[in-house]
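ok so I'm stuck.
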Amino acid sequence: MLQKIAGCFLVLLVCFGCDKKQHIEGYTRDDNGFYFKLLSIGDGNEKPQLDNVVVFDAEMKTLSDSIFWDTKHDAANGLFVALNSNLLAGSCNYYFLNMVEGDSVSLLVNPSVFFRNYFDTIVPNFCKRDSLVKLNVKLTQIISKQEYEALKNISQACDIGDTELQELQLIDSYLLQNYKYVKLDGNGIYTIHKSVTNLEPVEGGKKVKVAYQGFFLDGKPVDACEQSIEYIYGTPDQLIKGLNIVIGSLKKGETTKIIVPSRLAFGELGSSNGSVPPYTSLVYNIKLIDIK
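replied:
not stuck anymore, here's the structure
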């Protein structure tokens, strides 16, 4: 999947200045209006050159340190940045050209410019009160454009089965650490626990009210809070396939916690909004609130 990730994030980081009167503790403001802080010093010897591609582990945060994008969940192979001389002036590339492998820095960016350049969108509600967005990056690799193209070609040649195998290995590791005796059921779902009632069961054509929340295997929530939906059970495309299967096995008032493999969730493409990467298993807490 490297070519998809790299293609999405092979962008120039254009970070504009902020209010000249603003002082941020721990950060240094330069003459171009950038706020910069060195987090750690690496052990590399060489700095990148113009026309190199640099690869970062990265976190994008609000000023309250709430992470809304990171390479761990959203770009497993890293954030790829092309150092293009045409946009060197007035960009973060100045700082990247002075880093070596292992260096970590934090930059503060104007939100309207940040979201326009990274996500091609206006500032979302969760960040509208912030005067700045925090970008933390650690330089992990410096490669040439030729090496970058070679990595894309290798990725294109990889067998999709390898990706599916890696997903199963992650599930196995999660279960070994947390729920050793949970096994895959006949529907392809792992049921971690389930409460039991003697109330009305779900049937096709009845309206059900369900509360649910999804998480990645490392505990990071897919949604900021619990979601609630009311729909006619059996209506297609209301929820992912794995959730529909499990909801159909519940009775009113029952709760369950499950692991849904990607083939019953968002599959090889991931979610349409990009919040769930391809081939990603998810953990769900579900409660069947009502049946009408």
